[in-house]
Write a structure and sequence with these properties.
CATH architecture of the largest domain: 3-Layer(aba) Sandwich
CATH topology of the largest domain: Rossmann fold
Radius of gyration: 26 Å
Structural class: alpha/beta
Number of strands: 8
Strand order of the largest sheet: 3-2-1-4-5-7-6-8
Number of domains: 2
Largest sheet: 8 strands, mixed
CATH class of the largest domain: Alpha Beta
Shape: globular
Number of helices: 6
Strand content: 15-25%
Low-confidence stretches: 1-5, 21-38, 224-238
């Protein structure tokens, strides 16, 4: 009697998704990532046109060799411009409370070959800048996000060198009608909170189309301004 031999031929396992669909999905993921990067770049370009970095840095007197502390640096939109302006002999402390944003800044600086930027993960009430280390503290579109602005300014004061300034750029409620109140800071609010923290506004610039630029200094005991020098006159230039 002959033995029956059963031969089983296994067929290749096929995906439940057609190959074309898988390729389309992969392309869609790549496209979405690429478009997201383009969106970030487009948004940065739009905001930088609203706040031209070179014009802003000229107005605040930023020069090569200076040390800057940036509060609320985000993902480095302005950080790279500050780093380029102060140059290799200067330094930028980029502060934020968002660790992912700071990681993005480090990646950006590696890509753009900026070795003069140091990231600092701070607190909502303290940027944790080194003591007596900075010539200028810079906040662009950050002030209205501060949960404790008076405490933040008080914490900034010890990091300032003699005569150092704090620069605040924030939307103006008159120039930006229709925006939510939480998205801008009136001069009166900055003046009140700065005063409570021991600062005063020494200059105000209004040349930006939708924003105001405020320059603050620590008030000296027995008078305003920095000891040994006459404080700049408060101006509102177009």
């Amino acid at each position: 009697m002959l033995n029956t031999i059963r031969v089983t031929v296994k067929r290749p396992v096929r995906s439940i998704f057609p190959t074309g669909l898988l390729l389309a999905a992969a392309a869609l993921i790549f496209s979405a990532s690429f478009l997201d990067a383009q969106t970030v770049e487009a948004r940065e370009k739009w905001i930088n046109e609203r706040q031209p970095p070179a014009q802003v840095m000229d107005a605040i007197g930023l020069k090569p060799g200076m040390v800057v502390g940036e509060v609320g640096a985000g993902r480095g939109r302005y950080t790279i411009h500050l780093a380029a302006r102060v140059g290799p002999s200067g330094h930028v402390y980029a502060n934020d409370i968002d660790a992912d944003g700071l990681a993005a800044i480090r990646d950006r600086c590696r890509k753009d070959k900026f070795g003069n930027v140091e990231t600092i993960l701070g607190r909502v009430d303290d940027p944790l800048f080194p003591k007596a280390a900075v010539d200028l503290v810079f906040m662009v579109y950050s002030y209205h996000h501060l949960a404790q602005p008076v405490d933040m300014l008080k914490a900034i004061a010890p990091s300032l060198k003699p005569g150092a300034t704090v620069v605040v750029i924030d939307p103006d409620p008159v120039k930006t009608p229709g925006e939510r109140q939480s998205e801008y800071t009136p001069r009166e609010k900055i003046e009140r909170e700065a005063g409570a923290a021991g600062f005063e506004i020494v200059r105000m610039e209004i040349f930006l189309p939708r924003d105001n630029l405020f320059i603050l200094r620590v008030k000296e005991r027995g008078g305003s301004g920095t000891a040994g020098e006459r404080p700049p006159r408060l101006t509102a230039r177009r």
